[in-house]
């Protein structure tokens, strides 16, 4: 087991480096209101977090990460632009992988700046890239914003687009929805029978549970409207698949995505932002011809990111989680800002993994 004193010393070193980059040190409470995180992630987060109850404060959650409370703090009191750093333990249940730590240290760097988002992306990424360079890690990057733009550009109903947006971070559910909306998957017989009924609630059993009749009728109406909507075209499905299959060096990925944008113009602005980001990275000394890009990267474990995403991995230790991760989360500031928003990007490092890998180098 890695020595806790060594981990804390490494956390202090990283935090001091981030402070030297202009970040203001901040602290957040270990116990966070569960309501905020449940509103953001839904009930799914219960499977990944430690939740307790307080007679006065209601449900509380052991801090699963720092980003949400830091964004809340900034949106209430912060000036623009602003930059923060922090360090401390986070807590996540690992029932599907008992060998992974359920409590570990994080050190983070968060940047709020609306002036030049792509330049800010490059600043945060290059800071972590240079900080971790002695470890010889592989950097992976992606851009959730390109897939979101592709969904926005589909010629289908807003209801379907909203469903697809909601499940971008759940690849299997996203694929099932695309198959259903495009007609690739036949409607289940039970649903077809329900929609064929003149009065779907006729003869229904007494209402049990939290849902009311109005909610059920609203859901049935949505299913009826969807059933008579034209399917998403095979061409558009193929373009979504083409985007999700992009996995190459950043320069080649950019050219590939530009080709796709010829047939799916909705992704054009997002692809332009990728080009600006790569140019900003080059100015900071990052060789983008050797930087991996995967259009689907971050879709399984980065739920509040909506643009640039990245991670750093020890290729000689595939058993380890990423040493550092980060990305852009503009939508999160909008959700927590009560109508206000500011473009934001950040990254976190796990000092325990840094110490472990330093012992191997």
From TrEMBL:
<dbReference type="InterPro" id="IPR041715">
    <property type="entry name" value="HisRS-like_core"/>
</dbReference>
<dbReference type="GO" id="GO:0016757">
    <property type="term" value="F:glycosyltransferase activity"/>
</dbReference>
<dbReference type="InterPro" id="IPR004516">
    <property type="entry name" value="HisRS/HisZ"/>
</dbReference>
<dbReference type="InterPro" id="IPR006195">
    <property type="entry name" value="aa-tRNA-synth_II"/>
</dbReference>
<feature type="binding site">
    <location>
        <position position="106"/>
    </location>
    <ligand>
        <name>L-histidine</name>
    </ligand>
</feature>
<keyword id="KW-0808">Transferase</keyword>
<dbReference type="Pfam" id="PF13393">
    <property type="entry name" value="tRNA-synt_His"/>
</dbReference>
<dbReference type="GO" id="GO:0005737">
    <property type="term" value="C:cytoplasm"/>
</dbReference>
<feature type="domain" description="Aminoacyl-transfer RNA synthetases class-II family profile">
    <location>
        <begin position="14"/>
        <end position="346"/>
    </location>
</feature>
<feature type="binding site">
    <location>
        <position position="110"/>
    </location>
    <ligand>
        <name>L-histidine</name>
    </ligand>
</feature>
<dbReference type="GO" id="GO:0006427">
    <property type="term" value="P:histidyl-tRNA aminoacylation"/>
</dbReference>
<feature type="binding site">
    <location>
        <begin position="304"/>
        <end position="305"/>
    </location>
    <ligand>
        <name>L-histidine</name>
    </ligand>
</feature>
<comment type="subunit">
    <text>Homodimer.</text>
</comment>
<dbReference type="InterPro" id="IPR045864">
    <property type="entry name" value="aa-tRNA-synth_II/BPL/LPL"/>
</dbReference>
<dbReference type="GO" id="GO:0004821">
    <property type="term" value="F:histidine-tRNA ligase activity"/>
</dbReference>
<keyword id="KW-0328">Glycosyltransferase</keyword>
<feature type="binding site">
    <location>
        <position position="92"/>
    </location>
    <ligand>
        <name>L-histidine</name>
    </ligand>
</feature>
<feature type="binding site">
    <location>
        <begin position="65"/>
        <end position="67"/>
    </location>
    <ligand>
        <name>L-histidine</name>
    </ligand>
</feature>
<protein>
    <recommendedName>
        <fullName>Histidine--tRNA ligase</fullName>
    </recommendedName>
</protein>
<feature type="binding site">
    <location>
        <position position="299"/>
    </location>
    <ligand>
        <name>L-histidine</name>
    </ligand>
</feature>
